[in-house]
Amino acid sequence: WRARPLSLWAAMVKYVFFDVTVAGKAIGRMIFELYVDSVPRTAENFRALCTGEKGLGADSKKPLHYKGSLLHRVIRGFMAQGGDITNHDGTGGESIYGGMFADENFQHRHVGPGVLSMANRGPGTNASQFFITFASAKHLDGKHVVFGKLVEGLEVLDTIEATPSRQETPLHPIKIEDCGEMEKDWKPEVEQRQQSEVAEMGYLAHIAKLQRAANGGTKVKFKKRKKGKKRPASTREG
């Protein structure tokens, strides 16, 4: 086994988005990074459900698309759940593979807010339902497949968490008004800032190097005094 070049890993990174409304009012966009390298099958299922490119489901004959579906369950301090693209109430769902598919692995953990993970009814029952954590949920490790994380739109997630609910059901519809895949060259603001800072640091380092070269270009050196001759040491350019 050989490690893949970092450039190849970077080329594999996929970002998808949800444009969310509450009671018909737009609250913003959430952008997720998908772990295509470690859980490719699970990540691809979610990505394709965001784009709707697979058409109708083999079982439900309904669009395999998150667009128009609801976040039907919200528990403050825990998570928001959605992805029921067939019944829209948490009782349904369908994967792009037809029905359900197996747990890929449990490599990633439910640490912090914004973790994107598969909802299920037990081992090997993944379909289209997912949840997004509001906080760490380590008791779900080893039971639910984590396949991504929120990279932009934490304020949208906060608004979702603050939406009033009764018995875990939001009192106002929380809808995925639109969704899809980000452009291939898109990068999170944090990463863009980091790259800009690295570029700036590289530029400053280059300037400093030029300054050192300019200041140290002419050096004073002392010649060794030859035997038998008495004369002061002279200078020469180094």
Automatic annotation (TrEMBL):
The keyword Glycoprotein does not apply. It catalyses: [protein]-peptidylproline (omega=180) = [protein]-peptidylproline (omega=0). GO terms for biological process: protein folding. The keyword Cell division does not apply. SUPFAM superfamilies: Cyclophilin-like. Residues 17-181 form the PPIase cyclophilin-type domain. PPIases accelerate the folding of proteins. It catalyzes the cis-trans isomerization of proline imidic peptide bonds in oligopeptides. This is Peptidyl-prolyl cis-trans isomerase.
